[in-house]
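[Meeting: bench + compute handoff]

Bench side (C.D.) handed over the final construct sequence. Compute side (W.E.) agreed to return the predicted structure before the next meeting so the bench team could plan truncations. Sequence as handed over:
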Amino acid sequence: MIFLKYIIYLLLSVFLISCSTVSDDISSEYYNIGNAYYDVGNFEKAIEYYNRALAGGSSNENIIRFNLAVAYSESDRLTEGLKHFEFLLEQDPQNLKVLQSVAYAYFLLGNQVEALSVYNQILEIFEFDNTALYNKALILIDDDKDEAESTLEKLYAIDSSSEVALLLGGLYEGRGDWESFSEVMEKALIVDGKNVEILDSLSLYHEKFDRYDKSLFFLGKLIEYDVSENLSALYFRKALIELLKTEDFDAGLRSLERALDEGFNDQEQMNLLLESGNLKNTTQVEDLVTLKGFFE
């Protein structure tokens, strides 16, 4: 999902070149109509008029063909789009936009081997191309974590965005390199202090190593900034730490009450809490849960 979102954004930024560059009158008119249809998402009509523009024998054939290839891709006619991209690549083997588009088309067609090959080709020409580094890493991330990590580290040196940091941090976490994980996450938080994924990662990281004060700090920030419907679970998680791991029983009761007020309804998790044997005052917790009508 991250992969597709990242690529689609780059692809649609968009490779539609201004119609003012098409000089031939008839082809120019068809081309402009094709662009208008593309802009409103009518890709089939855009394809029709781009093909008419090509048939008119324009001297700007490659410009039209590129837009035609993009329109084919957007209408899920990927094989036809890829043919046009590959034709353009023969004309200009080092054209970055075309190379990126070819790689993307191969990926959507399920041919990750060819997509990876094209990204490697891009990186031979443009060593620090952000998109190629990012997508190469994402293709490799399941099957070759070491190569994915080294690729992301190279990207991170020029792009320390939260998106890159989360991917790289996830690889560090996976192999237990907690020092590198925390360094990357905390640096990312300086840049993107309200990123809920980073806050969540740091809270879980500190909880794992029994640094409950820090875990609660980041969890508190997560609760403050999380705009999802996950507040009840976050407050319950906070209550678990306070009731079972720290000495702040009263704070735990308040967090538990807030979780219940927010609609927490996971009976399995609640039973685990009540049966944990580590509660300072089980009766008090049971009374609160009963008062809130949790088991009704």
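W.E. noted at the follow-up: The longest helix spans residues 25-39. C.D. will use this when planning the next construct.
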